[in-house]
Amino acid sequence: MARGIFRDLLGQKFGRLTVQARGLSRKGATWDCVCVCGKTLNVTAKHLVQGSVRSCGCLRADMNRTKYDNPATREKHAAGLQRMWERRHARMTAANKKAARLKKLEPKPPRDSRPAATGKFSAKAAADLAKAWK
Length: 134
Ligand SMILES: [Zn+2]
Fold this sequence. Notes:
The protein has 134 residues and is α+β, with helices and mostly antiparallel strands. 48% of the residues lie in helices and 14% in strands. A hairpin with a 2-residue loop joins β1 and β2 (17-22). The chain is elongated and about 95 Å long.
């Protein structure tokens, strides 16, 4: 491959990474980078240019950590869970109360008053229909 096909990324910064040297990989253009946390890693030029790799992996870990290390965030999170639970509890209580009320107001019809589900016409029903069609 001709030289110059690869962008010279030496010294450039991508997120937390600073390109230190051309990588040793024979697979393609890679660069040895050093992260702000001190770790070194080898990244393909493509990933650097596309911005898909911007740290040694500590970026995401840091973001998660700062998110949950922050007492305000933690409190907010806890409060959110509490509210969610309370809402659910209230909903369930209301539903239970309504169900109990309905049960009291509308007792189920006794078994024998329900229409028989035989799937067959009774002789009388057949006769009624025959009359109606005349
Ligand atoms: Zn790092």
